[in-house]
Amino acid sequence: MKKTFHRGAVGAAALALGSAAALAQTAPDTAAAPSLKEVTVTGNPLGTADLIAPAIQYSGTGLLLRSQTTLGETLDGTPGVSSTYFGPNASRPVIRGLDGDRIRILNNGGGALDASGLSYDHAVTADPLTIERVEVLRGPGALQYGGSAVGGAVNVIDNRIPREPQFDAKGGVAGKADLGFATGNSEKGGGFLVETGTDRYALHADVFDRSTSDVRVPLSLSCTQGGVTSFGNRICNSASNTRGGALGGSIFFDQGYLGASVSTYRNNYGTVAEDEATIRMRSNRYALEGELRGLGGFFQSVKGQFSHTDYQHTEFDAGDPKTTFKNKGDELRIEARQAKFGQLEGMIGLQVDNTNFSADGAEAFAPYSRTRQTALFAYEELGLSWGRLSFGTRVERVSVSSAGNPDIARFFVGSRDFTPVSYALGALVNLSRGWQATSNLAYTERAPKDYELFANGPHGATGTYEVGNPAFDKERSVNLDAGVKWKSGADSFALSAFVNNFKNYISLESTGNTRDTAGNGAGGVGVTDCGDGTSVQSGCTAGVLPEYAYQQVRARFTGLEASGTKRLLDGASTLDLELRGDLVRATNLDTNQPLPRIAPQRVGATLIWGQGPWGARLGFNHAARQDRVPTGQLPTDGYTLWNAALTYRMKAGVSNLLWYARLDNIGNQLAYSATSILTQTVPGRAPLPGRSLKVGLQASF
């Protein structure tokens, strides 16, 4: 992959930051420029103060100091959340052991369409540089977002469509610039946004750019590019260049707003499973959003969202294009909030999704397909003297059809129709002295995805031959979680437990057979032998691939999540201790074997100190050894990663500056992710990043 990338956005950010720094003078910590209204919407459609469903949000400095190059790594370490980690460039969140299309990635509450659920090497089309806030719903979000949120939802929130006026009738201008550099991957990144308007309109523009080189790791690895093999302490083919931007605006009126935005995302990165395989990605998204409030009558307000996404990426081998994936789709979402009737309040909604997928080339393992989904849903809450009850339902009509592929004869051609129905009940009980208890019971049905039904081909990212099953039924699950939480001043504590039973969980399982790349059987040679002297774990050679088939099995996921904060020092200086931990156990009940890629037991702690404009953090994340893996797969050793951060706030003219430094993996510990498929398919090839120092400056005005 080329190591020379575009620098336009970085240069613009550097110019803006440099001008601000030239005026800098030390001042006490000050308020930031106007920003988004802090309203949690994921799992909380009525905007009530206390959440019944387990959820967490990150914004501001907290988000900045955990931000990584991918959304999955940014959220990794949150109780109940890990990541798929396909190297530093492609990583989706894993919630309570569930990944892929059981976790819904949202943009401002609407669907974010890409191909990241199809394959682990496909990146999410959201860059942490552009995120104002991110919310994570743990547990089923299927009522609001469909069966693809059976494990949870991640809502990435920006202000590309302003929803509230930030300025009065005289108007104004606000903005933010971010510039950062890191040593571990030679990262150079920057972003800049500006907003202007009055109390009647608002305009938004942003641009970002990030480039990285191969990631440094604590051991020497081989790298063969251009026919030359070299060795070094870097993950081969892990460089990247990501850039994009958006324009948006809204018109405000007495009873609501109407806004639109257009955004683009570009990513050119290495897929670390192969030394010379790269992906060139582009996504264009067009969104329209509006809301009418204070309507009177039965409905209090109506909110509508519409988006169209045109996504494409091409996979290259040593610079030669091999396979092109395209995904185009529309989503319409309408929510109507009803007037309060006594202590009962709620909303009803309509969601319509249409997507068209195609793959052309040597590794087109899924056919051309079309998915159509229409859903009606309702959510109600009843306030009581002791707390709240919630209940709701969702009914969908899903059609998934395969048109085959004009160049590949082996694909199934036909369609399947499904009618998933989901229900949920929840309760929040206010106990004494700041304690609350919550419980949620959900029955969820999910229609199989197109690739789960129709896949039939070699998958280069996993080194396998994948086979779907057009006869699959709806995936059905029952989820129960219960928890307690407590808060008193700066101190807090939360503990939750969950169990998720699947009647027919769709799992990608080894059949013990092999096929060649054309789909012909190469003989049944056992789970660990490819028949040519190589193993499934190291990847089969000479065009022989281990066969993996999607199968419906009974499965159970159970787990615990805990977090807490204790104020140790309160005065001119503050000192807080944050604690966190989680445990997930997942079992294939048909075979009594563990399910693959499940995070081990994890614990972590962070000391957070603050005094005036200064802030500092020191903490660790520990993952236990994961040896509870399916037969034939490799265990993953435990590890402890230490990290630290230092921040300083100051005033520079009309700007507020935040200087920050973050040191990750202080001990340069060698570690591998148990939730990454690379740990099994190319063992030793893609460890977690080694020691890295990131320094940066964020300016707001």
TrEMBL record:
GO cellular-component term (any): cell outer membrane
Q: What is its main location?
A: membrane
What membrane topology is annotated for this entry? Multi-pass membrane protein
Q: Which UniProt keywords apply?
A: Cell outer membrane, Membrane, Receptor, Signal, TonB box, Transmembrane, Transmembrane beta strand, Transport
Q: What are the recorded Gene Ontology BP terms?
A: siderophore transmembrane transport
Domain TonB-dependent receptor plug span(s) in chain numbering: 67-153
- Which compartments is it annotated to reside in? Cell outer membrane
Q: Which Pfam families match?
A: Plug (PF07715), TonB_dep_Rec_b-barrel (PF00593)
Gene3D superfamilies registered for this protein in UniProt: TonB-dependent receptor, beta-barrel domain (2.40.170.20), TonB-dependent receptor, plug domain (2.170.130.10)
What domain of life does the UniProt record list for this protein's source?
A: Bacteria
Leader sequence segment: 1-24
Asked whether the UniProt record includes Hydrolase among its keywords, one would answer no
Q: What is this protein called?
A: TonB-dependent receptor
Q: Which organism is it from?
A: Variovorax terrae
